[in-house]
């Protein structure tokens, strides 16, 4: 048995669910995604269920790669609505007490000073629960919205390294005890403990100091999802939590080993980041009920919508491939987007359909069975999760929703009690910052 405990993260979206195509049409899904109550209720449910954290993914463009138009995506609701995440997390923080709160922000289209100030503010107002999901952004549509050239993969990570140097440096421009508010002496803050950053680099210049005192966590928790060779090096240097995609337990073990090797190469051996694969769980009181739920969800799926989503993730226009012709053998190498996700999906496609798999096969598979799905009764689901955890394929999981908030309600009702009974999940701690409760390195310290 491992001495540590599973980290359980709820994967949310500031729109209808897109981790199960068509799930927004499920009669149990809350349709009010433009209302504050949707997010307040979601945060409360995730906390009540026993998750450690809720985080939201993001994109800065409507999907426009498929057919070189956004029209099909708008008609189906495929990632066309994405609300501002820090506004939402500020709202949720006022209605929850314990869960970590994660927002996705890009190192390609924002400035470090803005990001440093935004997450420092969230960390203070949430009493030490802010999490930054770091992305480098992955498609041409986003670049066009910001009026900038689309950057090559490794160049985006070079920029991201400097971006993190500036953000973390700004978080430390205030020493921990600089903020005094001492009415007896009239000292608001100690000027000897507030410092310039004076960063002058290849991509950024920032003098500092930050206009927000050092966050309660020192550094808000850093989440990252890169799985390319360059992305893994970036995660080894910066990430506290690493969101990964794995086709199954064996590939999960391989990713786990490779990431720990990367940690060792940068000297992070005492308390490296936690590795969390994405899984979708469909659970019911019996296996038959769970499979009936899954069959209904699959009936809502549209294969073309799956191809719209994959086009956005990959940078490839899948409408240009004949539906009934085999996909090119080198399809993965053609992607300009998320190489790890595309590689995982194509690997599973070829395993299921063979080397002659077509675009139609891809759409049908993506609509119902891409990624890791765990389906069954509470004991069966817990067996599978524990096999990954005990087998050193992960340190916990990112649970992707289908219907919302029903998927998280079911996981909290059926699975988390079973995981507690097996001793791999504790009752949620309530004291300290989110970083403290996960036992993560403090990281900060001028």
Automatic annotation (TrEMBL):
Enzyme class: oxidoreductase
GO MF annotations, alphabetized: monooxygenase activity
Alphabetical list of Pfam families matching this protein: Bac_luciferase
EC number: 1.14.-.-
Family matches, as NCBIfam families: FMN_nitrolo
Similarity-based family: Belongs to the NtaA/SnaA/DszA monooxygenase family.
Protein name: NtaA/DmoA family FMN-dependent monooxygenase
């Amino acid at each position: 048995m491992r001495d540590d405990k599973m980290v359980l993260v709820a994967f949310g979206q500031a729109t209808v669910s897109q981790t199960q195509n068509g799930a927004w049409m499920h009669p149990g899904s809350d349709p009010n995604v433009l209302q504050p109550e949707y997010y307040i209720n979601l945060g409360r449910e995730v906390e009540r269920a026993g998750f450690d954290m809720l985080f939201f993914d993001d994109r800065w463009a409507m999907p426009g790669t498929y057919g070189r138009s956004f029209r099909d995506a708008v008609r189906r609701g495929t990632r066309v609505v994405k609300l501002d995440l820090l506004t939402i997390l500020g709202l949720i923080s006022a209605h929850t007490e314990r869960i970590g709160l994660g927002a996705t922000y890009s190192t390609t289209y924002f400035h470090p000073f803005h990001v440093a100030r935004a997450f420092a503010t969230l960390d203070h107002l949430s009493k030490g629960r802010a999490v930054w999901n770091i992305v480098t952004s992955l498609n041409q549509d986003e670049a066009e919205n910001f009026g900038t050239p689309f950057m090559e993969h490794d160049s985006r990570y070079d920029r991201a390294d400097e971006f993190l140097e500036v953000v973390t440096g700004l978080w430390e421009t205030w020493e921990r005890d600089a903020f005094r508010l001492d009415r007896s002496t009239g000292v608001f803050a100690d000027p000897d403990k507030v410092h310039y950053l004076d960063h002058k680099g290849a991509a950024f210049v920032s003098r500092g100091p930050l206009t927000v005192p050092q966050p309660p966590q020192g550094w808000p928790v850093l989440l990252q999802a890169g799985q390319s060779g360059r992305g893994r090096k970036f995660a080894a240097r910066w990430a506290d939590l690493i969101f990964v995609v794995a086709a199954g337990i064996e590939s999960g073990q391989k990713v786990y080993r490779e990431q720990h090797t990367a940690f060792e190469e940068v000297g992070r051996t005492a308390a490296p980041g936690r590795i969390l694969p994405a899984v979708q769980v469909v659970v019911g009181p019996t296996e038959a009920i769970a499979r009936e739920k899954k069959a209904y969800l699959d009936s809502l799926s549209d294969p073309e919508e799956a191809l719209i989503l994959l086009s956005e993730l990959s940078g490839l226009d899948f409408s240009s491939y004949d539906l009934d012709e085999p996909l090119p053998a080198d399809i993965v190498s053609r992607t300009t987007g998320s190489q790890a996700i595309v590689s995982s999906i194509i690997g599973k496609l070829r395993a299921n359909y063979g080397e002659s798999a077509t675009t139609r096969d891809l759409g049908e598979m993506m609509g119902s069975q891409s990624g890791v799905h765990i389906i069954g009764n509470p004991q069966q689901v817990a067996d599978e999760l524990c096999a990954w955890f005990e087998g050193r394929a992960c340190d916990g999981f990112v649970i992707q929703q289908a219907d919302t908030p029903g998927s998280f309600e079911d996981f909290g009702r059926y699975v988390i009690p079973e995981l507690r009974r097996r001793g791999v999940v504790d009752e949620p701690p309530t004291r300290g910052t989110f970083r403290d409760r996960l036992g993560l390195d403090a990281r900060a310290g001028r």
